[in-house]
């Protein structure tokens, strides 16, 4: 059974001063805390055990917001990242939690949305080796970039190249087999003093067990690490929800439609939230015609 790792550490310096007293993953993206979005992505993949990695200061806040996940039919645990030293560090911190299980690592400030997203995630969850995603971007030099050969096979992944060999960046979502923590422990700090996730992924590539899935043009990937990006993400989510009347990355909805909670549990979750309109939306999910329409 694959387990999820949600990395919500870091200092959020690119968002100062708004992150000087609270981490960015607790800030709102439209009508929900940012962390709801990556958490729902893991849930949509079929993952029900999640480790949230955060700073010692933020842990009580995350625990207050998320609890142990029981209300959504999942299990949430917490671990501390005292000092951010690269994404691969999360795999080392999570090793006791994983206990030999395969994993899915998602960054707490990455949002995904799209019609085919859930099926894509579930395919990745059922895959072997490692699976990463490619997303066409206008500025690949700002990301980890995937290079392909003439047969569209991945042959190299480079972190923030000055001369990108393709326009496909790797979003902050990675599926690994049970070897990921061991691979991470073999990684040496980069020039910027971090354990780079690219170095873990390249070990899978060298062993010919790396799968690269290109996300469709109908899939949105939003990285909310700057004020402009947060504003754009809020505008995007607001537009989708207002136009469709459906919420994006609502954990109660994902849990209910996935059968993780029943109708009574959904009503219990909705009742305290009725004044905000969020609760009314949750109650609307009980309407059978609505559910048929979703499926």
From TrEMBL:
Source organism superkingdom: Bacteria
Catalysed reactions, semicolon-separated: dTTP + alpha-D-glucose 1-phosphate + H(+) = dTDP-alpha-D-glucose + diphosphate
Residues in Nucleotidyl transferase domain copies: 3-238
GO molecular function, one term: metal ion binding
Cofactor(s) needed: Mg(2+)
EC number(s) recorded for this UniProt protein: 2.7.7.24
Keywords: Magnesium, Metal-binding, Nucleotidyltransferase, Transferase
SUPFAM superfamilies cross-referenced by the UniProt entry: Nucleotide-diphospho-sugar transferases
Pfam families in alphabetical order: NTP_transferase
Cited InterPro entries: G1P_thy_trans_s (IPR005907), NTP_transferase_dom (IPR005835), Nucleotide-diphossugar_trans (IPR029044)
Pathway: Carbohydrate biosynthesis; dTDP-L-rhamnose biosynthesis; Bacterial outer membrane biogenesis; LPS O-antigen biosynthesis
NCBIfam families: rmlA
Purpose: Catalyzes the formation of dTDP-glucose, from dTTP and glucose 1-phosphate, as well as its pyrophosphorolysis.
Family: Belongs to the glucose-1-phosphate thymidylyltransferase family.
Protein known as: Glucose-1-phosphate thymidylyltransferase
């Amino acid at each position: 059974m694959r387990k999820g790792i949600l990395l919500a550490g870091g200092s959020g310096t690119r968002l100062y001063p708004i992150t000087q007293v609270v981490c960015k993953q607790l800030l709102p993206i439209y009508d929900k805390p940012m962390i709801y979005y990556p958490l729902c992505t893991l849930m949509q993949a079929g993952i029900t055990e999640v480790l949230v990695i955060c700073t010692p200061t933020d842990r009580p806040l995350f625990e207050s917001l998320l609890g142990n996940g029981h209300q959504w039919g999942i299990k949430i645990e917490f671990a501390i990242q005292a000092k951010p030293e690269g994404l691969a560090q999360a795999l080392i911190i999570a090793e006791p939690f994983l206990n030999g299980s395969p994993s899915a690592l998602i960054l707490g400030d990455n949002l995904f949305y799209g019609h085919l997203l859930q099926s894509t995630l579930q395919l990745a969850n059922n895959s072997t080796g490692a699976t990463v995603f490619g997303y066409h971007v206008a500025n690949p030099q700002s990301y980890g970039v995937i290079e392909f050969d003439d047969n569209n096979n991945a042959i190299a992944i480079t972190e923030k190249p000055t001369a990108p060999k393709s326009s496909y960046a790797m979003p902050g979502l990675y599926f690994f087999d049970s070897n990921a923590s061991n691979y991470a422990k073999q990684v040496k700090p980069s020039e910027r003093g971090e354990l780079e996730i690219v170095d873990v992924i390249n070990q899978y590539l060298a062993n010919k067990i790396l799968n690269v899935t290109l996300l469709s043009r109908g899939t949105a990937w939003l990285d909310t690490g700057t004020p402009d990006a947060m504003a754009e993400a809020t505008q995007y989510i607001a537009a989708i929800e207002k136009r469709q009347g459906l919420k994006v990355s609502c954990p109660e909805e994902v849990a209910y439609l996935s059968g993780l909670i029943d109708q009574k549990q959904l009503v219990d979750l909705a009742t305290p939230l009725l004044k905000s309109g969020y609760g009314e939306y949750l109650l609307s999910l009980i309407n059978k015609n609505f559910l048929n329409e979703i499926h």
